């Protein structure tokens, strides 16, 4: 097993300037993916979106450094006012609102999920599911912490955790089935032999 290699690393060019352009392109596309996943928002004040799935998948696909920078780019885009957050919101005020904690949790979750992927956790169903679960725990921990400051602990759980448990489990199962399948395709195609 090749460790410290994510799926994105397999196609990363060796030449330095091309590798830099590759990373920038991945980060930009990743930030757009998170924004698109945020626009599929149902509910209020903490909506159901596909953001957690997008962030955790980017972590697993990109690795810790690129994934963290991708999420930070997404947050900067939102902070300067681009409508990239749920319900088309943008601006610095969103960070101080009821979803602000989740946004900060995205950074931590991307780093942790990316680090675990670099250790090969994205190669098997069980370890992928566990990596996604750990990432989700950090997202919800930061989200609930912020909601507790605004609403109190019991209301924070009722508003920002309980309604999302089933959706989180479905996303984890989806990712845990998808990522190892991609690795199997890569291994069978012979690309693993040429990876870094």
Task: Please give a structural write-up.
With 196 residues, this protein is mainly alpha-helical. The protein has one domain: Arp2/3 complex 21 kDa subunit ARPC3, CATH 1.10.1760. The protein is built from eight helices and no strands. The chain has helices at residues 7-10, 16-39, 51-62, 64-79, 100-118, 125-151, 153-160, 165-189. Helix 3 (51-62) runs parallel beside helix 8 (165-189) and helix 5 runs antiparallel to helix 6 (125-151). The longest helix has 27 residues, at 125-151. The chain is globular. The two termini are 12 Å apart. The model has no long low-confidence stretch (mean pLDDT 92).
Topology record:
Blueprint lengths: L6 H4 L5 H24 L11 H12 L1 H16 L20 H19 L6 H27 L1 H8 L4 H25 L7
Counting helices, strands and paired strands, the structural category is: mainly alpha
Instruction: Tell me the span between the first and last alpha carbons.
Output: 12 Å
Shape call = globular
Number of strands: 0
**Poorly predicted runs:** none
Counted up, domains total 1
What is the average per-residue confidence, as pLDDT, rounded to a whole number?
Answer: 92
Query: Which oligomeric form is depicted?
Result: single chain
Q: What is the CATH class name?
A: Mainly Alpha
Order of helices and strands: HHHHHHHH
Helix fraction by DSSP (H/I, runs of at least 4):
55-70%
Describe the largest sheet. Answer: none
- Cα radius of gyration in angstroms: 17 Å
> So how many helices?
8
Q: How much strand content do the residues show?
A: under 5%
């Amino acid at each position: 097993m090749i460790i410290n290699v994510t799926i994105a690393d397999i196609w990363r060019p060796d030449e330095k300037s091309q590798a830099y352009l590759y990373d920038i392109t991945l980060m930009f596309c990743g930030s757009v993916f998170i924004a698109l996943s945020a626009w599929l928002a149902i509910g209020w004040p903490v909506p159901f979106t596909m953001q957690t799935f997008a962030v955790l998948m980017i972590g697993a696909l990109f690795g810790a450094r690129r994934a963290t920078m991708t999420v930070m780019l997404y947050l900067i885009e939102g902070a300067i006012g681009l409508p990239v957050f749920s319900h088309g919101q943008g601006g610095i005020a969103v960070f101080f609102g009821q979803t602000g904690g989740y946004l900060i949790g995205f950074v931590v979750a991307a780093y942790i999920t990316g680090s675990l992927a670099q250790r090969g956790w994205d190669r098997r169903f069980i370890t992928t599911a566990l990596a996604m679960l750990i990432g989700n725990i950090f997202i919800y921990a930061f989200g609930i912490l912020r909601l507790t400051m605004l609403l109190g602990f019991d209301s924070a759980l009722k508003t920002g955790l309980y309604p999302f448990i089933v959706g989180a489990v479905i996303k984890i199962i989806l990712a845990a089935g998808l990522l190892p399948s991609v690795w199997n395709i890569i291994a069978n195609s012979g690309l693993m032999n040429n990876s870094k």
